[in-house]
Amino acid sequence: MSMGPYDHALLQSLLGAWALAACSPEETAAVEAHLTDCGTCAEEALRLRDAVTMLHPQEGLDLAPTLRARVLDFARLRRRPQVPVPGWAAAYDAETARLDALLEDMGESEWAAPVTLTWYDGDATATRETSVAGVIGHLVAVDGLPALALGLPDPLRLGGGPPGAPLTSPVERTEAIWKQAGSEHRVQQALTPEMRRRHAGTVRGVWRDQNYQLIRRASYGAATVADLNVPYGPGLALPMRDAYADRAFETWVHASDIADAVAYPYDDPEPRHLHRLIDLAVRLLPGALADRRRAGRADPPAELLPAGEEGRSLHLEIEGEGGGDWFIPLDSPAAAASRKGEVAHVALEAAEFCRIAAGHRAPEEAAAGSDGDRRAVREVLYAAASLSRL
Amino acid sequence: MTHPQDVPQRWDRKMQQRLARGEAAALGELYDRHASLVYGLAHRVLGDEEAADQITADVFAYLWQHPDAYDPRTEPLRAWLARIAHKRAVRRLRWDEINDQKERGVTPTPQQEAASEERIQALAADARADYIVQSMPAPLRAALELAYFRRRDYRQTAVELGITEAEARRRLRLGLQLLSTAGRMPDGRPA
């Protein structure tokens, strides 16, 4: 029998391709002729052909977004953590994981989507177009503020960078990282899909590493770092616990920006976390109101009260899971506020309040029920919108 | 079963230590890295989201409760988790089958029992095959993907991967050889 140009070694090397029907017709015929008189090859051929039947497309399953919390809660019930994630860092842990899962589920081409960032600047909506990578870079840059306060490396200095004091304004930090990384939508569009994917992968990796570092530091530092001051630009600072809530809020807001850009559904945070985020925004309201008054954007208070004294208040009722009732002092940030001094009442859904505070909903368009002093209602809703920034 | 050499062993070792210390943040990171593997295997065997959710919770809770059950010196964490998930999913499948028969009040004939066992074994082998494909070295996986899912012959596969035709033949054969071990238990016994 003639094997022509085919010898046993060549035919054997063809067995995988043969089983996959990936040979030329001539090679296929030669392999099959060989199998009738070579027992070793016949046995292997059978085995490989069976193996082909086990190949099937990966299902590409998306895990339920709520599964992570369920799995972790279940495990923590069975064994109490010696080093828990403190309550004030839990929302940050959950929200960064949700965004990461969204990025994981997104298709390659979707990384090219332009994303519009929206915030409230003074008395009007401001927007800025960037890429998905640009949004993640923005999160990296501002998450860098609590990171710096905890002694972690500045993500703006990863490539060395100029010496000097680190930037502390969220806007300046964002502009700096965009310039460094070339994340602008225009720049991104000019890249090949492969380079764009690689760029996004790198930015995502830096972001995720920093998330994990922050969560670990919070866990090990817990009580000792909770009240450390985190500088947030000139004249602004937040205690660490609030900085984490602020970062969780921003992570959620920008994750929904990305989800909108690629038309994916994206849920609100779990109620226990949502409540913490709303509580932070509400606590920042009196200061924001005072800022607007100083800038001439709101009328001066009827009277300035000494700190701690009871004055006029606005009753803010946030409906839905995660909501609650808050009383906001209207006359000065340090005044006490309770139901006794209530001159106005605003009721709105938790998600709607967050949209205003994120600058995604103009205060005059908010779906809010209100009664009482209309000027107070207006001023508080505008103060909420002024909490937003790039 | 062979293990890919590119497994980050340092990560596995540190993770095991952090879990042993009771660090909740480590559990979150573990989930983020491996949940889709565990869930995917369970879902392949059980074909049901709720059941796959439950297996996922069981597997992570088990390692969290017994961090010493995993020894980083013997195998990658990924392989260990896959094994535990697989074992639990198959056990659950058997359990469901028995319960189902009890509920219907039927005693299966030996033929029915054999058929049901065969079905379980086939599902188990499918899930193992998935895992093998996912964890085989990337060059082998890429060759199989081109030849099988995108219907390239081995010469086109060689061109697309920028390798020689001999190398393309070698990768396709080796990939299938790895895959053919899915029908066996890890120790070489037929499943």
UniProtKB/TrEMBL annotation, chain A:
Record domain Putative zinc-finger: where: 12-42
One Pfam family, short name: zf-HC2
Keywords: Transcription, Transcription regulation
Gene3D superfamilies linked: Anti-sigma factor, zinc-finger domain
Top-level division of the source organism's lineage: Bacteria
Keyword Transcription attributed: yes
Keyword Transcription: yes
The protein's name in its UniProt record: Putative zinc-finger domain-containing protein
Organism from which the protein derives: Streptomyces smaragdinus
From TrEMBL, chain B:
Record bears the keyword Transcription regulation: yes
Protein keywords: Sigma factor, Transcription, Transcription regulation
Regions that span the bilayer: none
Domain of life: Bacteria
Domain RNA polymerase sigma factor 70 region 4 type residues, every copy: 132-178
Molecular-function GO terms, alphabetical: DNA binding; sigma factor activity
Gene Ontology biological process terms in this record: DNA-templated transcription initiation
InterPro entries: RNA_pol_sigma-70-like, RNA_pol_sigma-70_dom, RNA_pol_sigma70_r2, RNA_pol_sigma70_r4_t2, RNA_pol_sigma_r2, RNA_pol_sigma_r3/r4-like, WH-like_DNA-bd_sf
Domain RNA polymerase sigma-70 region: 30-94
Keyword Repeat attached: no
Family: Belongs to the sigma-70 factor family. ECF subfamily.
Name of protein: ECF RNA polymerase sigma factor SigK
Organism: Streptomyces smaragdinus
Lineage: Bacteria, Bacillati, Actinomycetota, Actinomycetes, Kitasatosporales
